[in-house]
Amino acid sequence: MIEKIVARAQSNWTKAEGPHHHIVLSSRLRLARNLKKIPMPAFQNETDGFTVLEKVKNAAENLGYRGQEKLYFYRLNEIPALERQILLEKHLISPEHCEEGGNKGLLINGDEAISIMINEEDHLRLQVFSPGLQLEEAWQIADQLDDALESELEYAFHSRTGYLTACPTNVGTGLRASVMVHVPALVLTQQAGRVFSSLGQLGFTARGLYGEGTEAIGDLYQISNQITLGQTELEIIQNLTTLALQIVAKEEKTRKWLLQECPFQIKDRVGRAFGVLQNAAILNSQEALNCLSDVRMGVDLGLLKEELRKLNLCELLVLAQPAFIQRYTGRTMAAQERDGVRAELFAKKFR
Amino acid sequence: MIEKIVARAQSNWTKAEGPHHHIVLSSRLRLARNLKKIPMPAFQNETDGFTVLEKVKNAAENLGYRGQEKLYFYRLNEIPALERQILLEKHLISPEHCEEGGNKGLLINGDEAISIMINEEDHLRLQVFSPGLQLEEAWQIADQLDDALESELEYAFHSRTGYLTACPTNVGTGLRASVMVHVPALVLTQQAGRVFSSLGQLGFTARGLYGEGTEAIGDLYQISNQITLGQTELEIIQNLTTLALQIVAKEEKTRKWLLQECPFQIKDRVGRAFGVLQNAAILNSQEALNCLSDVRMGVDLGLLKEELRKLNLCELLVLAQPAFIQRYTGRTMAAQERDGVRAELFAKKFR
Description:
Two copies of one chain form a homodimer. By secondary structure, chain A is an alpha+beta fold.
């Protein structure tokens, strides 16, 4: 399964479908869980780590026997570094889980809607991905999966605080819900900074494309809850859904305003981005993402050729990434060569 | 005739023909002449200026009767400012001759190969334009025209110093020979500055697209002789031809070197320029010229679609100019609106 996953740019979350997918690219739920009486990854010895891997692997197999969706098990150190990097680029694992060392494992289903990191910061990090704004739907899947696993594994759970986690910010529900939003108009009008920095007061946080500490390139932001305690899972999800809808409305309104107030500037920006993707011979991933962002908005606003709608720009986001480009080309390359290959690839796509 | 001239971007010098026209866009000869016993334009009263206009006009008519090419006479103050500006953009008159005031006149033939400015700095400034590197051919035309006019007019001439002119730098032959060269590779490799600043020692000077004090945009330089005294006309022309051939060789060599040493960078530059011309919605004339320059080199190096060869990039240089854009659109426009119209126009041309 992993060979297929790393060979394709598409993933469950990149499908251009689901409510409001023109602005909310994808929804993701993550549950942090730990097994009873085994030290958490930061304090594990070799045996502890191995025990967790084995227990989770067996549990997943049992789920499979009971007719649940098949999850494929991998030890991360058996996956070559370049392919681990692709899993990261596809958001299926975290940057920490991509690094060498430790008894790291992965369970993943065939369409990449489910990915469980084993021995990341917690023993288990269940992730469910959906395209568009579908947090409740993702929650149904995550909840069922969690229940099924809990019937096989003994989770560390405290009746008052809830699920115990490595980091206190995850204690309680252990739930991190997030949406990836594409807000070029908010960025262009310099509203993004203000809007997203105010989220903290509401218990949410905004980060860049690859999580904490990464820059918001391509006008993409991940919005997630900061609070996991004192709210039910459904409350968290509903609050984030409400917030996402507000962002959708604000982005839509701003796009309309831009089209009305500075139509030439918008057409110019979108046109030039398209021109770069179609004609550049050197294209780094950051510029590719920024141009894809403008083109995506342009397509949505009807400013570019209608045929471009057929292009899945979420997939192209993945395609633009360094490791994916190398896997696609079939050889490791220095950044300079990658920029040439990427340019060629995009020129083909946009011709 | 003037209505036709200001309505078309083509001119004799914009034809993509003549020796070495891929680098030497055009050749131009200019002869400065003054009539005997009439004050030069800077010291003229109204009557003097009018006398010069009438004398030259009559002389030109007599030339026509004798079977020479017909020259059309205009008083500059009868030509609307916008159309004067187009004559300037087409290099048919000088910036000074474009300005209001004085008894300025113009004689021009049907294909714009000949343009005579009357009461510019001198009483007469005969100009002959040719596409490519054809200074000797231009000189044949200029010399015949000069002789024919001299048979009708009494030139101020001194047996020792030659033709008298308003500015001492023109005394003697009164000849300014110039070539317009397109040297994107020399500019890109930062050789242009060095090459062109050293021309002074050889008795030549390099200026931008619109003469003295104008910036060298679009990688275009006008090279002309500084010395008009102590050399025959043919010596001046031959020296400039030799110099132009050296510049052609240097530019060609540098282009080859660039293609070999940094093919991706060149393709990228050329591709992006094409992308801008094809897709921008706001395009000022300077950016248009710079992009045209890169595209012109790209076409020449076979880096762009073969069909682009059909586009006459010299004509597009004229088309990009502010006054021409307004005449073309049929209304006066502020710079911002022009940039939109220009972008639309170029998008059509390059689609």
